[in-house]
Amino acid sequence: MRTSNDTPAVHVTGLRRSFGALRAVDGLDLEVRRGEALGLLGPNGAGKTTTLRILSTLASRDGGEVRVLGLDPATDGAALRARIGVVPQEIALYSALTARENLEFFAAAHGVPRAKLGARVDWALGVAGLADRARSRVEGFSGGMKRRLNIVASMLHEPELLFLDEPTAGVDPQSRNHVFDFVEALRAEGLTLIYTTHLMGEVERLCDRIVVMDRGRAVAAGTLAELQELPTVKRALGAGLQLGAGVDLERAAETLRAAGIAAEVRDTRPGLEEVFLALTGRALRDEEA
Amino acid sequence: MLRTALTLAQKDLRLFLRDRTAVLLAFLLPLVLGAVFGTAMGGMGGGGGGGSTPKVALAVEDRDASDTSRALIVALRGADGLDVTEVPDARRLVAGGDRACGLVIPAGYGAGVASGDVPDLALLRDPSQVISQQVVLFQLAPVLLQRQVDALGDGMMGRVLDLIDFPAAGRARADAALRDSYTQIEAVLADLEPAAGADAATPSDAAVAPTAEAGGGAATTTASGFNPLEELPRLLGLASENVAGKDESGLAGSVGASHAFASMAVMMLLFGVVSAGGTLLQERAEGTLTRLQLTPAAGHAVLIGKLLSIAAIALTQLVLLFGFGALAFDVPIFAQPVALVVVSLVWVLLADGIGLTFAVMCRSQKQLEGLSTLVILVMSAVGGAWFPREITPEWFRAVGSVTPVAWAMDAYHGVLWYRKGLFPTAELSGVGPLVLTMLVGAALLIALSFRLYRKRFVLAA
After folding, report:
1. Helical H runs in B197-227?
2. Which of the ends of chain A has fewer CB neighbours closer than 10 A, N or C?
């Protein structure tokens, strides 16, 4: 069942999921527009992974309404899985198989027609920068090569919506940059992305909008600029004299100096990491393995 | 340096104790296997007490139907180590492995006893059940001697003297001496009666030691060189005949090879399929299972795929094993080819079910390794893959008979040794009921594994 482009890619209201006494997701509301790149942030145990698993049909929910590409993951699992891609946190590849064998297998498992399969695999190898290593076993690959292969293995069936769960964990800067370029290219093509990570720089660079989750709920949502302006954030970060957005800092400094006021004028807008800590607190959130 | 070494040793011990699988294999497995072997071998030596002494199934066919033959059967029923059933065709039962031994009382037996010219009783044997034959002979001995001694008179003593080619000149004196000796032995036996108990008629480990089994013949010889399986029947007036393990031309097969390859087919296949089933846990740990569950046709397709790959590996294992057995050890794989193929397919299906059930029950590969090693080794021991169940106590055999290993062993043994087909014939019973039992077991285990997979691998997310 295809849905129109007017419907949001993801629409979630009041989502709940508990594991025993633990409320992993506790009334989450979330909306992701088509073609949007959404960064989903939260400390350990915030409920990000459970949310992704529910949205991608891997886990059931206890309550709430969920629509992904207009489909309910609980009842339209097979149809939805054909239209989404999930890049898992771990390297989910068969290390004893070659890069090509892995891609051919996952393409076939996703139902890519035989006539298209070769072309899709070639595309994936090219995008991952592994065309010359297609016949090498994955066990001999570096962490970055595995990561790149891990990502393209989720895209062989041309999904409309891609979930990326910490896709750059443990890779070198070069490979990370390669991944960034790739994700930006996907964004440019209009693919909808939901990206979770602990690395704030990645979200700042790659995402249009950010949702911060804590204790199973969305505690803030918006662009980085919108989050920086949240009263909660400003209160938590303390103040000096704050100028409004859009003020020319150089002119403000000249004006103050001309008035004989010795003042240091600089851009003190908090980075995403400071926003994140302001919203979720500084207490440690250790999560049991 | 010593201090560092001690610290390292302490760390290793702490890690070892945290690894429950390692602890299980190191400490519990030897205890369990020791208990299993001890119990089984206790039955062999008769040391397990009267209750645990294995009873041997003896099929008696009474072709005489006289008062004398009926009295003999009553006396045989009184023997502690025998489970006597009167049957119309003892040969069919022994040839098919349904009874360990058979005794045919010929027509004219009663009249012969009355006239002092007693015809031989026919003892039908299965060479694959050596221990049972010994038990039967030692149980038959006092009964037959007791009942025949008066009637046989010179006849029996004459058999003894014939056996040792005694010169005719001294026959009369020797005969008298033998009769005196027998009377004295009877008196000694009467003195020992209260202490001897049920085990008196059971061969002990020291008295009888198996020496060789080949070409369908079974030889067991005492320390003094006396072979009870060969000599005792003649002394007792028994014409003994091997009736099991022969092909259509009457050639005997090798029970050792048949048993060994059946055992390997059963036990090693189990280890193989459990290991293959463990790839499910490996895939879960490595994340590829999640990827598979994200494909449109996920769900049971994942488990069906495992089932098929495990079956392919297992079938290849069996083809190689039996092919090698046939080429190198004359294992008769073409005696009943259809039955062998069907038994193998059904056993692969059942083993597949066992492997998958183990995989979906365990939380990690380490847990799977520990649990499966324990269960497979114990099940193989009680199910007859390591030693014949005939040597074990009755309760032990009863426990073993409900294990898949016992079903598979009996089915393979039936096909390879007894040359049974799937369906019964005039001469032999079939392995059909065993195949059906395995099929039901496979269906139940596969259904259970699918249910557990859904519960523990899909919905548990």
Report:
1. none
2. C
Nearest CA in chain B to A93: B288
List, for residues B301-319, the tens digit of each pLDDT value. 888 998 999 899 899 989 9
ipTM value:
0.82
Contact call for residues B415 and B431 (beta carbons, < 8 A): yes
Specify whether the CB–CB gap between A41 and A212 falls below 8 A: yes
- Contact list, A53 vs chain B (CB under 8 Å): 461
What is the rounded CA–CA span in Å between residue A67 and residue A7? Answer: 10
Residues with Cβ < 8 Å from A250, sequence gap 6 or more?
A: none
Amino acid at A152: V
A92 to B290: CB separation less than 8 angstroms, yes or no:
yes
The structure tokens 């139940």 sit at B444
Q: What is the pLDDT of residues B238-261, one digit of tens each?
A: 888 888 876 656 566 677 788 888
Tell me the per-residue pLDDT of A110-151, one tens digit each, with 9 for 90 and over.
999 999 999 999 999 999 999 999 999 999 999 889 999 999
Q: Which residue do the tokens 């249910």 mark?
A: B451
Residues of chain A contacting B286 with CB distance shorter than 8 Å: 90-92
Residues of B in contact with A109 (CB under 8 A): 292, 295, 297
Give the pTM: 0.74
What pairs with residue A98 in β-bridges? A137
